[in-house]
Please model this.
Amino acid sequence: MQSLIPWVWAAGAVHLAILGANFVVPGKISCRENLARVSPMIRTVFIVHWGYIVLVLGVFASMCFWFAPELAGASGLGRFLSAFIAVFWLVRVPIQLFFYDPEIRKQNRFSDVAFLLAISYLGAVFAIAALGVAK
Model:
């Protein structure tokens, strides 16, 4: 458990990096122009969901910094939360690989690979913590 704490802290930094990217990505993918073409209801739902994702990322990062020992396996609740975070990110890998437009991914290869590495790291760290593999 103790050996995993620095990895959980690093996971907090990765969450912050992903959170920060959510303030750059809208301009990169022309959200304003694209959302102008959809109904107000769709636009509102999209913006609210994006905001909630940013909130969740902030909560995940905060937990990594303030509750690293628990997330690293010191408690049942910590292992449960680690399992949830692991599933949250590991499910995102096939979504990134198979759901997103391959042409957009190719045009943004660096970001695509960086994000895949980040979410794979997060999934692995929290899966290890949830399973209690590290001692």
